[in-house]
Input
Amino acid sequence: MRGFHYLKNVATVRLDQEVCIGCGRCLEVCPHQVFAREGKKAGIRERDDCMECGACALNCPVKAISVDAGVGCASGMINEWLREHGFGRGGGGSCA
Output
């Protein structure tokens, strides 16, 4: 899903490129394409697109990625995106 951002400069996702082995798993599992190839390793393309689901960190075989999963409001972001694109009801967007 593309086309929305979380709050500016608050995503907790971090990538240690020194530890990264370039397997590309983060690129495969990230639902918002936060990661991109930078040479032979991964890099963070757009940190503000991260909804902090934790899929990248859980699937990194060398633990080069860390994220405080659950800190972001994934359901609120998804509901807002659906509403904006005509798929949702009028409310939503809150994290409660």
